[in-house]
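#dry-run=false #mode=assembly
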Amino acid sequence: MIELTEQPIDFNAITESVQSNAAGAVVLFLGTVREFTKGVQTDWLEYQAYPEMATASMSKLEQECRDTFTVTEIVISHRIGALQLGDISVAIAVSAPHRTQAFDAGRWLIDTLKERVPIWKKEHFSDGREEWQHPVISQQQQQQQQQQQ
Amino acid sequence: MIELTEQPIDFNAITESVQSNAAGAVVLFLGTVREFTKGVQTDWLEYQAYPEMATASMSKLEQECRDTFTVTEIVISHRIGALQLGDISVAIAVSAPHRTQAFDAGRWLIDTLKERVPIWKKEHFSDGREEWQHPVISQQQQQQQQQQQ
Amino acid sequence: MKISVLLFAAAREIAGCESLAVEVSGITTNDAPTIGDLRAGLLHAEPRLAGISRSLLWAVNNEYANDSRLVSESDSVACFPPVSGG
Amino acid sequence: MKISVLLFAAAREIAGCESLAVEVSGITTNDAPTIGDLRAGLLHAEPRLAGISRSLLWAVNNEYANDSRLVSESDSVACFPPVSGG
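#status=ok
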C-alpha cells in the first residue's frame, strides 16, 4: 500500500497494517525532521511532490521490492507540505517471514525512494535562509569548488 | 532503556520514546510469532528467561551499541511467558541522526540479542508436540544426521 | 508545436510558475520533437533556468526520460531538479 | 563444597527442578573448583543431563564462563542450553 499525504503520518496504524501471522519480523523506518544538519539549525521543512509521478513511482517501488525480496506486506507513506522539527516525513513498514528480508527490503525501499521518487525538500533555516535540497547539484558544486581550490 | 516483561509490548510507546529532534531516522524491529516454520504449524510459543542475566546482558548490548554506532536513543524490550500467533516477542527501537546508523544498529542489536541474551523459546506445535528451540543443538543434530547419511 | 512542461521545486521557483508552454519542433518538419529539443526550448522560454539546466531531469508520462525520448502534445511532460525526498 | 546451579529451558525440564546443589571440589583440597569441575559434578547429580551436557553453556554472576573459570559458594552459577530468544 502506498500513500502521499498532507496529514501527519500514523506509524502505529501503518505498523499494525503490515503485521501478519505469516510474518516473523516487522521493520519500520521513519524519516523525521532533524534540528541540526552539519551545524546549521533547521526551523522547518517544506516537502513538494509531483503527485501523479510520485505515487506511480512508489507503486513501482513496492512491486520491485516484492519481486526482489521475500516479504509479506509493504506500506510506504510520504508526507508533503510544511513539517516541523520531529515530524515524520516518511514511513516505510515491511513484514517478512524472516528478519534479514525485512531489514534488506526496508533499507532498499528508503534508499531507492530517495533516489527515484519525485519529491523535493526545502530547508527553512533558523537564520532566515531557505534552500531547495538537490543532492546532485550539491555534488557538482562541491566538485567545482574542489577544482577551483 | 531495556525491559523484560510479561505484558504485551507497546511498540507505539516504545517508538515515540526514541523520537528526538536530534534524530533524522528511527528504525523499529518487531519479532512476531509466525504460524508456519518449515511447513510445521505453531499453536503458541513459550518464552523463558534467566531474568537477572537477561537484563544485565541487554543493558550491555545497549552500551556496546552506543559505543559502536552513532545513535540517539535505544529501547530493547523482550516479552516472556505464553505468546499467541502474531504476538510481539521482541521490540528494538533505535533513533539516529542518519538512517544508515539506525539500520546498522537495529540489525546488530537483534542479531546480537539472539546470540547472547539468555532467553529460550519453546514451540508448542498444532499437532501437540512441544520442543525447546536450541539453535546449536539443532546444528549438531543436523551434522550428525548428515554424517549418518 | 507547443508542449506544456510541468515544473517543480527550484525550477518552479526560478520560473515563477507551475508550468510553461514551450515552443518546439523536430529537426525536420515531419520529425517528432525530443526531450533534447524541449530542453533547448525551455531555456529559450525561460532563460533564468540556464543556471540549473544541466542538472534538470525530465519525465514523460510519469517515467524518467532521456534527451532522445520523442514527445507529442498528448504526453505529460515534467522537468525538475534531482529529487530530495525521504 | 556445594554450589547451587540454576537451570533453564530444556536443562530445567530434564532435571525437573529450577536449581541443583552440585557437590564439587578442586583438583587438590586447596584449589577452588572450576566450571569444568561443576560440569562433571552436575552430570553426577543428574545423569539424565548427559544427552545435552556437551552443548550446555555456563554463566557466573551473569557473565558467560568457560570451563577454566574458578567458582566459589558466593557466586551465582547457571547452566543452560544455547539461547533462542528474539
